[in-house]
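hey so u asked for the seq, here:
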Amino acid sequence: MPTLHVVDHPLLARELTVLRDAATGLEQFRAVLAVAAGVLAYEALRDIPVAQVTVRTPLEETTGTALGRPVMVIAVLRAGLGMVDGFLRLVPGAAVGHLGMRRNEATLQPEDYYESLPAGVAAATVFVVDPMLATGGSAVAALTRLERAGATDLRLVCLVAAPEGVAAVQQRFPQVPITVGAVDRELDERGYIRPGLGDAGDRIFGTE
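ran it, structure tokens below
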């Protein structure tokens, strides 16, 4: 079963075009990223476990649907913070955790600096969110940390991916579904996605 799902939706394509544009300012970038994250969340949540429940309408009892497991969203700091609201709009009761990793610009490898995970990781469907899947180092590190914490139902959601990053995640975690808005051409010598949209963290927080 393929683990990569590239979301093909005209609204997401439109928002991604705005995010790629170097002329898009801070306020608009944040707002558009939240909308794009909501579309990605909608698709990523499509096959989560559900349970049947009984509900009484004004006329009679009927069968309905509830989430079968708790949902947890883990933002890879710092850029992943820009995608959290997209999930919370759809699953307001989701727990939110944070994993801090910075990329060593010399080695392009992730370096851990922070971890805050909600209780109940093992019982939850866990979505790791990060706008960029470049080398795959941060994604693999995040998934590894969550696996060690007991997570058994892991999902990865990114806005833009490079083929190299997708391959790295699939090699280490072949069972983890990956939902992305686009797979771009390649990584450059600095480990940036081309054509990409620049440094998502800098564009979200105005630190360019």
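Residues 26-44 form the longest helix (19 residues). The chain has a mean pLDDT of 93.
lmk if thats what u needed
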